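Operator note (shift B, R.M.): manual run for Aldose 1-epimerase requested after the automated queue skipped it. Running by hand, logging everything below so the morning shift can see what happened. Input copied straight from the record, untouched. If output looks odd, do not overwrite the archive copy; leave it for review.
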Amino acid sequence: MNGLRDHEFLYVQKRNDRTKAGIEKTVYGQLPDGQTADLYTLHNAAGMTASITNYGGIIVSLTTPDRNGKFEDVTLGMDSLAGYVKGTPYFGALIGRYGNRIAKGKFTLDGKTYTLVTNNFGNHLHGGTKGFDKVLWTATPVEGDEPALKLTYTSKDGEEGYPGNLSVQVTYTLQKDNALKIDYQATTDKPTVVNLTNHTYFNLAGGAKRDILDHVVTLYADKFIPIDQTLIPTGKLQPVAGTPFDFTKPTVVGTRINDSTDTQIKYGGGYDHGWVLNGTGDSLKLAATVYEPTSGRVMEVRTDQPAVQFYTGNFLDGSVTGREGFPYKKRYALCLETEHYPDSPNQPNFPTTVLKPGETYKTTTVYQFSSKKE
Ligand code: BGC
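Run finished. Output pasted below as returned.
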């Protein structure tokens, strides 16, 4: 398939040859319907790896160096395909058609009301019960110094309740500079709504063996999107200044995460909100910087999207056993999901997420890794 036979290596002769860029493909496993999912490991010349399966477009692992050059996985994930099929809270997955929530699973477009699958306290979350995180994508590895994996999927008219046949293409590129770039593209044959993202859970300490409360986060956002008890936006934006949501300067995550005097913290069970990114236009802008002091790892997130959902793993409760049989507990990871505002299809004051025939939805997010001494 795609010119790459199972276990065949492009450029790399051995798995431990970290001097050359390339892609390795292996069979990952069989899905309940008999289809086979593959695992592609992208290597760059600097030694960073990104392992991605075409099941859900899931980033299964991402190894990045600490300040001593030690490579460790900085994501939460499972040991096998079966673990993902059994169910995770979207570890590493591509999310669509609509990342985040749509209130009561309903929206009206051109006078017609559409009813979506509801899967989160009466609301629609992350594309429904079988979103893009649970479908098998067609994968095409792209050779080069910056290896890439192109994933395509056609979502049928009516899937999970959405109108229009939607053709989606997502390309993961492992850049020379230890950045993973994600390019999203989609077209439709009927007016519809689209909001694609990736749901990787990060713990920059490596191995996800403890919580992320010591991570230092900067969000380049002066406003955030307040929510109600069901995590649906109220429709108004609020300045972060003077609130526990102010991450405009590097801030230790744990400092105010339990400030129960703040209603928004209470509703989110911590941070589970959209931040409105400063700056406008379609160019890539810095959305977030994360620093983990024990390892020295740094992650910078750049995007052309208007918002980022900062989620601190508040719903993790140890019930999902991840890699090496390790239970992922509350706040063992953080997510930075670049996207449009939640519930935009029902919020006339939010930037539009409507995609019409003849238009191309196009967006890019880059997660770049480095380290610093202290
Ligand atoms: C949402 C959380 C949700 C998590 C996993 C995040 O994007 O904001 O509320 O629990 O995804 O589903």
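Quick read of the result: Residues 6-15 have pLDDT under 50 and may be disordered. The longest strand covers residues 361-371.
Leaving this for review. - R.M.
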